[in-house]
# Entry
Amino acid sequence: MNIVEMINLYNFRNAKLREIVLMYPGNYEAFVYEWINPYTLEWYVGWHKIEENDAYIASGKYFLHEYYKGPSFWVRTILMTGSAEEAQAYESKVLCERNAKDDPLSLNRTNNTFPYYTLTDKDKAKMRAAMRTTEARAKMSALKRKHFENPEARAKHLAALQTPEARAKRSALVKKYYENPEARAKVRAAMRTPEARAKMSALKKKHFENPETRAKHLAALQTPEVRAKRSALKKKHWAKRKKRSQSLEDFFA
# Structure
């Protein structure tokens, strides 16, 4: 079977659903699209709310994994345009009628039944509580450890954490968290428990067992910037103590 016959077969099989609506300047906020690879007959259907300077491809991770292997092999068709709610409903209709989740050529993993269920505040609170149980935390910890046993996954994750954007984001989040006096006091109290101090001490000792790590740390402490910073902190500390001592002398004088 040549490529033309394959495409014709695909179009015939899905004729009921392929009411092609070409994109045109009009009054609509969303559209339903279909990506097809005419060589493998794999397909993916989704909907998207139009944004300014839109260069949207898709959101499905399984589809994107295949798409980026060869973007030129994929062809997109617009199936319908309309409101966001209409687009969601039409996407669900297409996926259900094709039974996408059971189609071996589908890169959609669910049939996306509509209307979608929206989580209430009560649902979110219940989910958060469930995730904080000892069993759930242990399970998540085990999954993370298993994931990071792969050297490539570990290296990729560490590299992503060291980007300027990631560092800036973490810094902003930590600063925002510590703006709350209660949160700040809670963290300080937790860090001062004998168990926490022993744990931090053990981690530091283990970290510095590596000669390269130890040498790198010592070298970093000797830079002019770090020396100046430490000096300023020490001066500030001793100035505070001197002021406190003076206050006590004045009080008992």
